[in-house]
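Entry for fe (ii) ion complex. Fields follow.
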Amino acid sequence: MPMITDKITLEKLLQRMYWIETEMEQLGTWEARIEMMEDNVAALEVLSHDSDKHGNIVQKWLIIGDITVPETAPSGLPKHIFDFEGMTSNEMFERILKYEILAKNAYEDIKNANLDVITELFPNENDQTEFMQDIEQLIKDEEKHANICKSKIGGFAKIML
Ligand SMILES: [Fe+2]
């Protein structure tokens, strides 16, 4: 993606990421419906728990940046990103992987945003530093999540209808 060079683009991306993290947090609700091995359940728990933390981090920056915290899906995103009905666990982790990679790329775009845009959104210098530290952590976590998904792709368990 091209470099983020305006405030609106950055604001919209943060709103989208808030939404995606919130949806990812819901992954935990699929556990009970999935016929799968214990380590798959553990993987879903990590993804869900971290996404809850990520959602809170992104929400914190929306509030500091005086950006509306979305209550409905931002434009271009489906109402519910994850519907695993009828999928195998393989397909499920493939679908999650797609969003983990998308998240990692989005946070990298934010990290590489034009510095003027960051400064405009967060005029306080300490905020700028903390924001960048948070984004770095998010990138690392998403990398870890993508690897978790990759390690799970190849299983045979089925999702119950
Ligand atoms: Fe993630």
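NOTE: The domain at 7-68+78-152 is CATH 1.20.1260 (Ferritin).
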